[in-house]
Amino acid sequence: DIILFGDDTDNYAYEFAKCCSPIPGDDVLGFISATGGVKIHRAKCPNIIHSSAHYGYRVIKPSWSTEGDDSFLASITLKGTDDIGLINSLTTIISQDFKVNIKGMNIETIDNVFVGKLKLFVKSNEQLKAIIKRLKDLDGIIGIHRNDDQEQEA
After folding, report:
1. Got the DSSP string for the chain?
2. pLDDT per residue over 16-29, tens digit each?
3. What is the pTM of this model?
């Protein structure tokens, strides 16, 4: 397991919330359902904030295990000036330099400015932050952020 609850005797079935897609290293909270399973949310997720306000006694603080080699889906949005080779540079950095698999990519250009959404399989939020930092350094990138995480806006 990659999520730990309290001491070794605490054991819950859990799944990751699709609304906020937590990845290792994110600050997370768990919501215990009526059936005893736990939904793991990023701590800033509006759904867990709402649940905490109404059912605070069902919210627990899990932690990430340091073991595991799983990949987690994270989504980022980029904005930049449309230029020949920029998309190739983006995919080269992600795929070759970071060895990260791209699950999906959607890019649209209007008036020489592109907006793209990329879905990446990453190992942790530290890896995702490193990718974002590296992509920000590319000429032509105007802004980039993890979806549902506007504080990383460039």
Report:
1. --EE-SSTT----EEE-TTT---TTS-EEEEE-TTS-EEEEETT-HHHHHHHHHHGGGEE--EE-S-----EEEEEEEEEE--TTHHHHHHHIIIIIS--EEEEEEEEEETTEEEEEEEEEES-HHHHHHHHHHHHTSTTEEEEEETTBGGG--
2. 999 999 999 999 99
3. 0.81
